[in-house]
Amino acid sequence: MITISLTQFVDFVSTAGTPKLRIVRIAKQQSLEGYHPAKDFWKRLREFIVQMHADGRPKSAFDGFLKSLTDKKKQTAYPEAVNGYKKFLGRKKPTWFHPPKDVWTQGNLSVSLNPELGLDFEGTRHAIKLYFKMGQLSKKRADIITHLMHLVLKADTKDASFGVLDVRRSKLFAPPTASENLTALVQGEAVSFATIYDVL
Fold first, then answer.
1. Which of 78, 152, 193, 198 is most buried, taking the most CB atoms under 10 A from its CB?
2. CB atoms near residue 148 (< 10 Å)
3. In terms of pTM, does the model score above 0.90?
């Protein structure tokens, strides 16, 4: 079974032509090397956001977090993401719940689905994937992410909506339902990914 991250699969689906080969090649190499926390630039901020909500702390907790940073690159990049996330929260005071996690499997390909946040805003529960990249999150990419979460995670958390948050821009994409057309697309792309992976 080939196991990849949701980001890797979305990159593949969103790309056309021969650049798909490079995405699969990188994914295969990373699979062989294994996960290295030191290479995960946003890990510390992502984990802080999760823990902040799990502990019920206010967004002012970010002030101390930013002051604790010693890595120059993080000192430069993290504040913009923090400001975007604080803007997203606004005056909302969500309560925490553990978001569902699972895998989507198609043929010989398995894609990990792990929204980081489970936030309840005044009785409405949201399972949210965080997007930190510099480039703006496109609707196409967001639709693929939320679609897969709908397909797999909805059965575990029927009363929750599923979304992906473009953290820097404070924009939450949370379509209410899955799309049959997208199901056919991701199934076909999964077969393509696995085929390329096997021959590279």
1. 193
2. 25
3. yes
β pairing state of 117-121 and 95-96: antiparallel
Beta-carbon neighbour count of residue 130 at 10 Å? 18
β-bridge mates for residue 160, sequence order = 125
pLDDT at 72: 96
Which segments of the chain have a pLDDT < 70? 37-38, 158
90: left (phi over 0), alpha (psi -120 to 50) or beta: left
Kindly state the tokens that stand for 26.
Answer: 């990188």
Q: For residue 176, what pLDDT is reported? A: 80
Please report the sign of the dihedral spanned by the C-alpha atoms of residue 200, residue 192, residue 2, residue 41.
positive
| Total number of domains constituting the chain | 1
Which residue has 């999964």 as its token pair? 190
Domain range enclosing 174: 2-199
SS3 per-residue string spanning the chain: CEEEEHHHHHHHHHCCCCHHHHHHHHHHHHHHHCCCHHHCCCHHHHHHHHHHHHCCCCCCHHHHHHHCCCCHHHHHHHHHHHHHHHHHHCCCCCEECCCCCEEEEECCEEEEECCCEEEEECCEEEEEEEECCCCCCCHHHHHHHHHHHHHHHCCCCCCEEEEEEEHHHCEEECCCCCCHHHHHHHHHHHHHHHHHHHHC
